[in-house]
Q: What sequence folds into this?
């Protein structure tokens, strides 16, 4: 049985994962710029290799984070549907969850396109 408490938890989970995803994307941009700068300056090959490994690890986190976001979004949608069926769709928590769902769907669509 879905409750408003579960809805709040799942909404917060989705918001946190979106923050994580944005953070990883920013990290990739920073690390890519740092790697390019090191290549430009002719850094030590070992240091450059280590920096490329850091960049690769950061890039690997983005698909994982997207999968977690899609899973969390599916859970949130299921909870929303369950609450709609039981006519418990009143309150700011429900509106916040619907807005979060819409925002995440738009985010995922823009990333695919």
A:
């Amino acid at each position: 049985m879905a409750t408003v408490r579960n809805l709040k938890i799942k909404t917060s989970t989705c918001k946190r994962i979106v923050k994580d995803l944005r953070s990883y994307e920013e990290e990739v941009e920073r690390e890519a710029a740092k790697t390019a700068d090191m290549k430009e300056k002719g850094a030590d090959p070992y240091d450059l290799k280590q920096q490329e490994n850091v960049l690769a690890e950061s890039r690997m986190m983005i698909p994982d984070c997207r999968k977690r976001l899609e899973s969390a979004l599916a859970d949130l949608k299921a909870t929303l549907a369950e609450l709609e069926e039981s006519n418990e769709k009143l309150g700011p928590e429900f509106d916040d969850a619907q807005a979060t769902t819409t925002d995440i769907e738009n985010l995922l669509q823009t990333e695919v396109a």
Residues 11 and 100 are 7 Å apart (CA to CA). The chain has a mean pLDDT of 90. Residues 45-85 form the longest helix (41 residues). Helices lie at 4-41, 45-85, 92-112.
